[in-house]
Amino acid sequence: MSAVLPPHAAHDHDHAHDHHDHHAPHGWRRWLFATNHKDIGTMYLLFSFAMLMIGGVLALCIRAELFQPGLQFFNPELFNSFTTMHGLIMVFGAIMPAFVGFANWMIPLQIGASDMAFARMNNLSFWLLIPAATMLVASFFMPGGAPAAGWTLYAPLTLQMGPSMDAGIFAMHIMGASSIMGSINIIVTILNMRAPGMTLMKMPLFAWTWLITAYLLIAVMPVLAGAITMTLTDRHFGTSFFSPAGGGDPVMYQHIFWFFGHPEVYIMILPAFGIVSAIIPAFARKRLFGYTSMVYATASIAILSFIVWAHHMYVTGMPVTGQLFFMYATMLIAVPTGVKIFNWIATMWRGSMTFETPMLFAIGFLFVFTMGGFTGLILAMAPIDIQLQDTYYVVAHFHYVLVAGSLYALFAGVYYWGPKWTGVMYSEVRGKIHFWGSLIFFNVTFFPMHFLGLAGMPRRYADYPLQFTDFNALATIGAFGFGLMQVYFFLFVCVPMMRGKGEPAPQKPWEAAEGLEWEIPSPAPFHTFETPPKLDATATKVIG
């Protein structure tokens, strides 16, 4: 029996569900030896939420220290460890694995594949994250404490750190290997396992954004591996890549790191664009405006991301010609991003919109991400950036892009596809409390940081002059509110859905949603698309 149900067979859901789920393994073996893309996706999402909580606690330690001037709770060295580990854990432990969880869950469902291409490698790429994350967090308990060189791990600081630095380097190698394996899996799945009739230009944008992201990951993760391996050999094997005493150059580290680091920023935002591109048309009840231009804009962002790395380095003594090149190249990236924002607004224009929680988060994403984009354009200009370098303005900018960009899109995706995953609808009231609480507290936290940065408050300092007190106090109150909203989200939205508490979700909870994932029952059965579906001309409906 095919797992693809034509609309007239909706009353057979339960039968289809039973038919498939008795193949599912049970108990701890199901999770330890998981090869099913849905189970692995679920594990990625739970892991990333656990890391979000750990990274969030570190952020709240930072904000607690900065609530008032003077040293309250932590010495400056530990404070620097908090800022370093907060960044590493959020980037490599929370945001990236969360998007891989979405890719695992949704890409096979969206392209009509039975599973990911390499199911056992998929299992390995998840389980590698557990020892890596453990090693990263355990570095706090090593002699000398956790690394305190900033998440960018700049030399020469990294060459002076204690043994925890080596643990951090090893952990990042393992996470990088996991990312590369996940990317190979996603690329092969998308290129080789699409349902008959689904050409590349008929794929949902989420699959497109992940295809491009996977190529980016394969291109840049080895660059990061090279930078941290050179750091390791400088520390232990007598090389002098980054040590000026032996003829090395610490600025070279920055070039190598940011050649990874800038595409990395887009790795964390492109899948978010894909999620938002699925949600806005569903709730505007219109087809996405300018699908082809969205695909080309995504590819353009990816290509341009390789030629802008040194805009992080305007103050390293770069020649003016270099500053001009990186300044113009960075401003150029705003063009394809602007195309995307225009297309999302054009999709909403004159649509019959409703504002369920996924749409609220998508619009919140659009509003706040665009603000983050504008501050990015400001920082792209070398003369201004030289004033704002390493101030709280930069902190405000990248949190507007990463929290309100990546994280809001992830929340939007959980609310949008969650009913398909769990088979129950979330509570709309609780979803809206989560949205409004998150939006308000986020802005209370990070908006004042623009003013702190403009007034000259440097980042990564545990203490500050008296005139910055009020905005810092405000930011700290906002941060604790924002953290509590995420705990609320887990306890009162996610846990009830995972336990099946709530209204049973229909096969297609959002009437105007398009895509193959809405052709299977809710909750999605353990095995789907064992027989590849045959698609109509639009590649959104199953024939038969």
From TrEMBL:
Residues 22-536 form the Cytochrome oxidase subunit I profile domain. SUPFAM superfamilies: Cytochrome c oxidase subunit I-like. Gene3D superfamilies: Cytochrome c oxidase-like, subunit I domain (1.20.210.10). It is found in: Cell membrane; Membrane. InterPro entries: Cyt_c_oxase-like_su1_dom (IPR023616), Cyt_c_oxase-like_su1_sf (IPR036927), Cyt_C_Oxase_1 (IPR000883), Cyt_c_Oxase_su1_BS (IPR023615), Cyt_c_oxase_su1_dom (IPR033944), Cyt_c_oxidase_su1_bac (IPR014241). It catalyses: 4 Fe(II)-[cytochrome c] + O2 + 8 H(+)(in) = 4 Fe(III)-[cytochrome c] + 2 H2O + 4 H(+)(out). Its EC number is 7.1.1.9. The keyword Membrane applies. It is a multi-pass membrane protein. One of its GO terms (molecular function) is oxidoreductase activity. Keywords: Cell membrane, Copper, Electron transport, Heme, Iron, Membrane, Metal-binding, Oxidoreductase, Respiratory chain, Translocase, Transmembrane, Transmembrane helix, Transport. Pathway: Energy metabolism; oxidative phosphorylation. It comes from the Bacteria. The chain crosses the membrane at residues 44-66, 86-105, 126-149, 169-193, 205-228, 265-283, 295-314, 326-347, 359-384, 396-418, 439-457, 477-498. Cytochrome c oxidase is the component of the respiratory chain that catalyzes the reduction of oxygen to water. Subunits 1-3 form the functional core of the enzyme complex. CO I is the catalytic subunit of the enzyme. Electrons originating in cytochrome c are transferred via the copper A center of subunit 2 and heme A of subunit 1 to the bimetallic center formed by heme A3 and copper B. Belongs to the heme-copper respiratory oxidase family. PANTHER family: CYTOCHROME C OXIDASE SUBUNIT 1. This is Cytochrome c oxidase subunit 1.
